[in-house]
Amino acid sequence: MHELFVTSRASEQHADLVDVARAAGVPVSPITDRAADGLSETVTPQGIVAVCALLDRPLDEAVTPAARLVVVLVDVADPGNAGTVIRVADAAGADAVVLAGDTVDPHNGKCVRAAAGSLFHLPIARVRDVPAALSACSAAGLRTFAAHGYADAELDRVDLAAPTAWVFGNEAHGLPADVLDRTDLAVRIPLYGRAESLNLATAAAVCVYTSAMAARR
């Protein structure tokens, strides 16, 4: 944290946070409610805003040979979806999340809020080069599974006990053919009802948790 801005109301409500910041040598600046409105992206700001360092790490630091479960997002556009998947990955005990291609910035305000603190719990890497992201996973000893609604292999019939990297694509278009070709296996979630599909965050939760539970068994 580089600097903290607080309204008088927030300094009373979050006195412990302000004290911790001051003890760490972080400058704390008082601001008005109007200034807080201007600094915040939310409709009802909490009156406390911090300027922080970026959280993402280099790819080789995030994906290591010790990893057993990694989530890769390719061209994911919605920050709420990206943040929710990061939260799911954290809850499932994943070792890292890789945001590849044109995936939204994890520091986007909506993404940060959707992640609900999980951005601080596991390594996040950003890389424009999708093949490089997949190669890094393979080099770390991970099998790369692509979530694909038209795949032949069904999730409940795939061995997920081995170290795995799950690859998820764009909300509207899924994964492009060249990315599917670079993964070890395309996998689909079976749909037993009449819904045509699952949204990205739900599909990610099903796949990632299935892997996590298989590994722990």
UniProtKB/TrEMBL annotation:
GO cellular component, one term: cytoplasm
Gene Ontology terms describing biological process: methylation; RNA processing
Pfam family, one: SpoU_sub_bind
InterPro entries xrefs: Alpha/beta_knot_MTases (IPR029028), Ribosomal_eL30-like_sf (IPR029064), rRNA_Methyltransferase (IPR051259), SpoU_MeTrfase (IPR001537), SpoU_subst-bd (IPR013123), tRNA_m1G_MTases_N (IPR029026)
Keyword Zinc: no
Example of a GO MF term: RNA binding
Ranges for domain RNA 2-O ribose methyltransferase substrate binding: 2-54
Keyword line: Methyltransferase, Transferase
CDD domains tied to this protein: SpoU-like_rRNA-MTase (cd18095)
Keyword Cell inner membrane: no
Residue ranges of every copy of the tRNA/rRNA methyltransferase SpoU type domain listed in the record: 69-209
PANTHER family assigned: RRNA METHYLTRANSFERASE 3, RRNA METHYLTRANSFERASE 3, MITOCHONDRIAL
Family stated for the protein in its record: Belongs to the class IV-like SAM-binding methyltransferase superfamily. RNA methyltransferase TrmH family.
Name of the molecule in the record: RNA methyltransferase
Originating organism: Amycolatopsis rifamycinica
Phylogenetic placement of the source organism: Bacteria, Bacillati, Actinomycetota, Actinomycetes, Pseudonocardiales
